[in-house]
Amino acid sequence: MAISTKFSATWNSSVQPRKQRKYVYKAPLHVKQSLLHSSLSPALRKKHGKRRVQVRSGDKVKVMRGSYAKKEAVVERVSVVRQKVYLQGVEYFKREGAKVAVPFVASNLQIIELTLKDQKRKLKLGAGAKAAPAKEAKKVEETKSEPVKETKTEKKEE
Questions:
Q1: Looking at domain 37-115, does it have CATH number 2.30.30.30?
Q2: pTM for the whole thing?
C-alpha cells in the first residue's frame, strides 16, 4: 500500500503533532502564505480593526520572542516556501566571516508600521476599519430591552 504524499486539508483537524507538522510541511504555497501573519500593535489594531495581517517586505516590525526580543527593524524579505521573515540589520557572522540574515517566524513578530503602497492591501485594511464600528452598533441594538408580551396563562390569572 502506497503512502499518500499529497496534501490534505483534513490533516489540520487532527490533534496529533506529527500530523500538524505534516500539514505545514506538505502545504501548497497559498496555504503556507496564510501562515505568514503577524499580530498588529495595539494602535494599529484600533486604526484598522484587525488583529493580525500578513507580513510584507517594507513593514516595520518588533521582535517579540528569542534573543533578538524588543528589537525593531524593517522587513527585508519574506520567504513563503521556508515560512521565514528576514529583517534589515539583523545578521550574524559565520566562522568564515560571511554575513547571514537571521530567519524569524512570523508569529514571533509584531507589526508596528504597515507599508500601504499596494492598493489591494490598502483596500483590505480599509474594509476592516469600516467593519469594526458596525459590529459595535449591532451590540448596542441587541442590548436594548424589548417590551415583554403577555402570555395566555397570565391573562387567565387576571
A1: yes
A2: 0.74
